Amino acid sequence: MDLSEASGRCPADTLARQRRHTGGEAAMKFGILFRPQDPPNAASIVQRWQEILAAARVAEECGFDGLFIPEHHMMPDGYLPSPWAALGALAAITERVDIGTTIHLLPFEHPVHVAEHGAMADILSGGRLRLGVGMGNFPAEFELFGLDAKQQVSRFEEGIEIVQRAWAGEELDFHGKHFDIKGRITPAPVSPELWIGAMSEPGVRRAARFGCPWPTDPLHNIEVMRYWTEHYRAAGEEYGTSDRLAVNLLRDGWVGDSLEDVERVWWPHIRADHWFYFKQVPRWVAEREPFLEGVTEEEDFQFDRHRRDRLIVGSPDDCIASIRAFQQAIDPAYLIMSFRMASGPSHEEELRCIRRFGREVIPAFRTNRTEEGATAAP
Predict the structure, then answer these.
(1) Which of 32, 40, 125, 144 has a CA 20 to 30 Å removed from the CA of 333?
(2) What is the pTM of this model?
(3) How far is residue 145 CA from its own chain's centroid?
């Protein structure tokens, strides 16, 4: 698909209310995490990327604040193995949105390369890079790079420190367990942010210790998010980093005419995705997820039970109510949505969803600033 085919722009008056750089300011930012997959064997991965870039343009036009991509290796469906070229492409076709990763697998790349590649992505975007990093959890990926998964924590933490110091412009003289580095990166980035992903209490404490925003996982329910958020913010108080912390909430969702509409169009795709993280690569904290009790096969994931306090789905009013519940529970700085999964829905349906979310959901969370103070957006 040619990028010029991404038609159907959002109404100009809607955009004027939403854009943060034209007099309005968002209390909470909205992003999209794209899923660059073409199952089963990536036969149409070129077309899939053209569709992602088209969706990225539509998302910026419709008032989203950020565009994000993931990373995994050796996936037969073409899952993105390196974010750098894709970040450059997103920087080139957009003007104001953040561009970033949730998550770049930092242990698999030399941290000096990460600092340099990140600096260039930040420069090309004019200071819009938000680089979320994580440790990785697939043993086969560590084997691909000849690394010992038992050393992932120390390697990850050394990498974080090196990237932070390199971006700060330091002349590095670093001697650790995994890296010996002497020198300085150039050119310097403009204003990147480093985010640290986590799905555990030690993980959120690590993010707080390094003074970094925390991108959550999209899987766990609102009570798990609340529990980890409390530990994250308490650790920030302990380490003296509270002023630098932010919760960036990842959620899967779909806006339609009704819950029944979403269950028909979207639910089969997300059920398959969440089943993968239950059966193939267990990532759920089962003791905090009572809905998992008795689940033995994919069909045991039932939409009405699974969606509650977890997914952002339904009519625009349903989505707004779910988002407000998460705001009250954890007060996120960012809500990063995934709409289209690996198997669907279609590109055309994805574009309709993005436009409708931008037109009928995001404006409920915008504010307009006046000389007398902040007032609700119309």
Answers:
(1) 125
(2) 0.90
(3) 24
Q: Which secondary-structure segment (H or E) carries 313?
A: strand 312-314
Instruction: Convert the pLDDT of each residue in 249-269 to its tens digit.
Output: 999 999 999 999 999 999 999
In the three-class reduction of DSSP (H, G, I as helix; E, B as strand; rest coil), residue 9 is classed as coil
Cα–Cα distance measured from residue 24 to residue 22, given in angstroms and rounded to the nearest whole number: 6
End-to-end CA distance of the chain: 36
- Strands 193-196 vs 366-370: parallel, antiparallel or unpaired: unpaired
208-242: pLDDT as tens digits = 999 999 999 999 999 999 999 999 999 999 999 99
Distance of alpha carbon 340 from alpha carbon 344, whole angstroms: 6
Enter the tokens of residue 9: 């722009």
Structure tokens that stand for 3 in this block: 């990028």
Nearest to 315 by CA among 360, 355, 350, 358: 360
Whole-Å CA distances, 13 to 16, 32, 363, 376: 5, 22, 11, 16
107-143 burial: b if 16+ Cβ within 10 Å, else e: bbbebbebbbbbbbbbbbbeebbbbbbbbbebeebbe
AA letter at 204:
V
